[in-house]
């Protein structure tokens, strides 16, 4: 018999709301990450969030505060180092430093096992009322910022040279986008964890680019895939008691494979028609 507690239990209602919010947010951010080929940055900033979350456990402060300090700090550091170093080098420096600090803070606290598991895999079925509100407000800030820079960000993502020729302050736009990624990561990590944050940011967007080449259609497709991924994952995790991270990653990968196959089939059909 179907268990309606999936939709009526308070902790599940929180999971549905927060999961839907981060799915929409991650799809909007991930779309531009894929366009700009900035997947390494999308991997490094969650690691900065890991260090921030570990520090919040050690200092016994609000996890969101620790996450914001380290992710925003990491984003600013990447932006600063990019002026002197290659982007990959700057990002790698932030990544390894964050992992080291995260390991240090977790090693100094007596909540190592519980804290590490929460940071790595999230607590989507343990989201409190305050976390739902924090998630919604921070996600709203990110989406507003992204809407404000949407057009120049889209143009600079397609071609920096054309954007510069039209007088767009590319460096400023890139810095603002890094800031948006940092805040978004701080929203996503408490829900799905450091490891799955990267999966949710990248996989739906990577799948959508094989299904459509139009920017708006790709963004909408990414959002649909993200929502289906998180909704199915929450449902299956509730029904099976398996880790939600397993379902998020596997379902996302399946969507990516379907996208690749659809793209291959379309190209083959076009080639045969010629």
From TrEMBL:
One of its GO terms (biological process) is transmembrane transport. It comes from the Bacteria. It holds the Pfam family ABC-3. It is a multi-pass membrane protein. One of its GO terms (cellular component) is ATP-binding cassette (ABC) transporter complex. Keywords: Membrane, Transmembrane, Transmembrane helix, Transport. It is found in: Cell membrane; Membrane. The chain crosses the membrane at residues 12-34, 54-78, 90-113, 133-155, 176-202, 214-232, 239-258. Belongs to the ABC-3 integral membrane protein family. This is Zinc/manganese transport system permease protein.
